[in-house]
Amino acid sequence: MTDLFSLPLVGPKAFAVWGRNIRVWLKGAVWSSLLGELLEPILYLVFLGTGIGAFIPEMEGATYLEYVAPGLLVMGAMWSSSFENTYGSFTRMDRQKTYSAIVVTPVTMEEVVAGDILWGATKGLVAGAMMILVSGVLGIAKFPAALLCLPLSMLIGLVFASMALTVTALAHNYEFFAYYFTVVLTPMFFISGTWFPVSTLPGPVQPLSEALPMTQGVTAARLLMAGRLDFEILPCLAWLLLYLFVFFTISVNLVRRRLIR
Amino acid sequence: MPEPIAELRGVVKRYGLLEVVAGLSLSVQKTECVGLLGPNGAGKTTTLKLLTGQGTATSGEVKLFGIPYNERSKNTRSRIGVVTQDDTLDEELTAFENLLVFARYFGIPVKDARQRAEELLAFVHLSEKHDARVPALSGGMRRRLLIARALVNAPDFLILDEPTTGLDPQARHLIWQKLRLLKRQGVTMLLTTHYMEEAEQLCDRLLILESGRALAQGRPIDLIREHVGEEVIELRSGALSPEALRSQLGFESFDTELSADTLYVFLRPGRPAPAEIPRIEGVDFLHRRATLEDVFLRLAGRELSE
Question: A110-124 pLDDT, tens per residue?
Fold first, then answer.
């Protein structure tokens, strides 16, 4: 149990691992993946925001489109990094044995895991950037504060990448991830204040919702997209950093336990 | 004696109750090529993993370049090259890019890495496949690329886990040729194999492993002399069991061995002389030189030990 929380020491070689993943991405899936990241926010904003929004004059003082956009940004970062560090990481770790190939070099397992998480978070950043771009075009993001949604997307990406890699370290096949997506992420997505305020949730569910990283991310993104640089954002960031620290530590130790035997 | 490049002393590796390496000691001297020979499950790969950062010994001492070694020994790992048994090439990338990406893990600057990658592709005869992606390469080419990748940091010590398993004879000979060339350049090597020919071709010294123990070790030629002598006669009959054949010939006192269908007679100096062996109707008779395979099968048993 104790080795599950040994503090990971990460050196700069993590960026070599990150660079490897970017190179592979640029050789293959880059265009299809960018298209998906761009199209998704457009579809959500246009069809859900304007369609459902037509029936909802305002929510918490904003148009419905303005209300859902920050949640969709967080959702995009969450899905992208979660997919990358489950299906993608499992392929690299288990099927292609890329992790094992790298640890025979001066790169440590901590750095391999950190590099892979950094890469998943980068995809979260790409998704967040697309959302900011589309929101900007639609005039529902207030610049320059909204630009801070970019580092926020990276942070959210890091959190969900670490959580995903923790699941991956325990997985024995791809089917295992279906549980994580259906039982953990999807419900989280619905109660995180993306579609309606957390205060309208049933009483006991509210504190649970507040404790979720996605809810904290949505709150932070909503402040920034509304152009508000406010101290209110600090607890959200602290909460996200805590999640990152805990899950990064656990994921490193689980992967080490799995691969270095 | 100078400090060995690699040294294991009384190393034990357990997975739960299963003891895979059971008190193994071995050392590899500079410029030497040492082979670990043994059936599947003998502990060969596990032993190598203790030297590549992919495993830690349950007990005992593991040293590389005279320094105690574990999975965190980054500096030590910058001096070794590893050819894994699994094909771990980056499938999406070209041959050249595979080498470049690996060079980054060693912190080799991009310009040097590009030059080194070109040289290594030429060394393993893959210059023409410079821009070919990995799936377009044959099995032999992939293995050569894996070897080139293991050389990207110009290692002093090369660890190879079954470098030619599954390759056709031409591909295998080309790899042997390259490994001999490296050896002449002063690279120290430790490899596992279950090809006796590979062991004879490449290794100065062999350890025959079974159940995580060294059954014997020495130069290939000494192992053959010591355990089976110079020559062997194989007798095989459809009608008689090897045991019946042995008693009919009155060979019980000689150095013989029985398998399911064959009687092996090891010709120790003078006894028996080949001429003493009567040719019996219906018994196949083969007189040949003793090989490492005889040593191996003798020590590790002729029956399937998987």
Answer: 999 999 999 999 999
- Is the pLDDT at A260 greater than 70, yes or no? yes
Q: From chain B, pick out residues whose CB is under 8 angstroms from the CB of A28.
A: 92
Q: How close A27 gets to chain B, by Cα (Å)? A: 7
Give this complex's ipTM. Answer: 0.89
- Chain A hits for B101, Cβ within 8 Å: 16, 19-20, 23
Backbone phi and psi for residue B5, each to the nearest 5 degrees, phi listed first: -65, -45
Q: Which amino acid is at A204?
A: P
Q: Does B132 touch chain A (CB under 8 A)?
A: no
Q: Tell me the pTM.
A: 0.90
Convert chain B into a string of H (helix), E (strand) and C (coil). Answer: CCCCCEEEEEEEEEECCEEEEEEEEEEECCCCEEEEECCCCCCHHHHHHHHHCCCCCCEEEEEECCEECCCCCHHHHCCEEEECCCCCCCCCCEHHHHHHHHHHHCCCCHHHHHHHHHHHHHHCCCHHHCCCEHHHCCHHHHHHHHHHHHCCCCCCEEEEECCCCCCCHHHHHHHHHHHHHHHHCCCEEEEEECCHHHHHHHCCEEEEEECCEEEEEECHHHHHHHHHCCEEEEEEECCCCHHHHHHHHCCCCCCEEECCCEEEEEEECCECCHHHCCCCCCEEEEEEECCHHHHHHHHHCCCCCC
**Contact in structure between B189 and B183 (CB atoms under 8 Å):** yes
**Chain A residues in contact with chain B using a Cβ-Cβ cutoff of 8 Å:** 13, 16-17, 19-20, 23-24, 27-28, 96-98, 100-109, 259-261
Sheet holding B256-258, edge to edge: B256-258, B262-267, B231-237, B283-289
Beta bridge partners of B161: B192
Contacts of B86 in chain A (CB under 8 A): 97, 100-101
Average pLDDT (A139-157) is: 93
Q: What is the pLDDT of residue B304?
A: 47
